[in-house]
Amino acid sequence: MVGTECAELKSSWEDDSDIGIIPRALSHLFDELRMLEMEFSMRISYLELYNEELCDLLSSDDSVKIRIFDDSTKKGSVIIQGLEEIPVHSKDDVYKLLEKGKERRKTATTLMNAQSSRSHTVFSILVHIRENGIDGEEMLKIGKLNLVDLAGSENVTKAGNEKGIRARETVNINQSLLTLGRVITALVERTPHIPYRESKLTRLLQESLGGRTKTSIIATISPGHKDIEETLSTLEYAHRAKNIQNKPEVNQKLTKKTVLKEYTEEIDKLKRDLIAARDKNGIYLAEDTYNEMTLKMDSQNRELNEKMLLLKALKDELQNKERIFTEVSLNLVEKTEELKRAEQNLNQTQGALQLTKRILNNTKRRYKEKKVLLQSHMKTEEVLTNQALEILDVADIATKDTHQLHSTIERRKDVDVKIQTACERFAERMHDNFELMDSSLSTLKEKQDSCTKMLLEEFGKIIPFKCTKNFKY
């Protein structure tokens, strides 16, 4: 309900995920009240129920004994005597008080929980809102929010609390929760008798269980299989509590005079009872009732003094308002003339407005026409864009083919140059060979002629002259 670490409560509840429902609710409540822009006051109290004993976690005096009495003016309500209500003005005040209360609350380490709550707590918020009615009379609206933190039921063996003070705490916690379960069952079944008085916890929650308030319950369970018994018990509580039918009532708005009158009558009644008790004349009261009434009277006296101070402040404010009203009355004539001139200007402005409306209608019509043309142009532009993209794709392909063709031509040119060079070299070699052959043939011919001549000479010597005469050379 409060959070894991009180030190972290000093930060903003919107930014801290570890704080509990109480600081979040108070922070949200402050924000909503400031948005109303009305005068308000807020008081808080922090009550602990430990081993069926009540303790004020915000009180500086531990000797004060807290008692519970039935409220005779409101059926089903209780009065807690000795519980201190501390005024708060900001979120920081609340966080400091929460830290103080958490430090004083009874917690202990068990086998099931490192910070097990050993008590039930009730954190109460009381809000007074002052607002002005239609006729200018001040109205007072009172609202109260109780945030209850119940200690969970425990298995003595699992929690390791078989002996000592922890065992007593566990017994008291389970006993109060058992009584709460019987009250819930009785309310659901609509039995004639509701056992509120069997436990102080159910007496504190009497107005929230079947009373005139709105009640919400948040069940905290464990997903572990070993805790299935506690989980089922908690879910059974929540399921039965959902079927309780409360009868919430809207807070009444009381005038300041009505509140002061009620307080005055109550104080006069208490004074008469007190005088009768002192003079031993009339009806005597029990000591608890007398203490309760005295405490209530002191509280009402304090509230009455606050109301008187507020009344004085309102009277001063009324005088200030009267002075302002006089000044406003003096300026009323000037404002009336200004109003007439403003009405004339308004008529002129209305005429200009009609003209402007006609111009606006024409402008809208031209705008629609331009919008249609623009849509047509956009469609045409889209088609042209698609065609241009297709042409660009074709141009890219043609460019790639051209580059490939140029590369092929360059390679062919290189091949032709190489072939021409080879042909020239071959022609040179052939020319050299032909010249060599020609030279060789000439040499060979000369040698052949020489040999032929030598042969003829030899034949001439051998063959007779006659034969040589007929031989032609």
Automatic annotation (TrEMBL):
Alphabetical GO biological process terms: microtubule-based movement; mitotic spindle assembly; spindle elongation
Molecular function per GO: ATP binding; microtubule binding; plus-end-directed microtubule motor activity
SMART domains: KISc (SM00129)
Matching InterPro entries: KIF11-like, Kinesin_motor_CS, Kinesin_motor_dom, Kinesin_motor_dom_sf, P-loop_NTPase
Keywords assigned by UniProt, alphabetized: ATP-binding, Coiled coil, Cytoplasm, Cytoskeleton, Microtubule, Motor protein, Nucleotide-binding
Any coiled-coil regions, as ranges: 253-359
Annotated ranges, domain Kinesin motor: 1-244
Record-linked PROSITE patterns: KINESIN_MOTOR_1, KINESIN_MOTOR_2
Compartments it resides in: Cytoplasm, Cytoskeleton
UniProt xrefs under Pfam families: Kinesin (PF00225)
Lineage top rank: taxon: Eukaryota
Cellular component GO terms, alphabetical: mitotic spindle; nucleus; spindle microtubule
Family: Belongs to the TRAFAC class myosin-kinesin ATPase superfamily. Kinesin family. KIN-5/BimC subfamily.
Protein name per Swiss-Prot or TrEMBL: Kinesin-like protein
Species annotation: Bactrocera latifrons (Malaysian fruit fly)
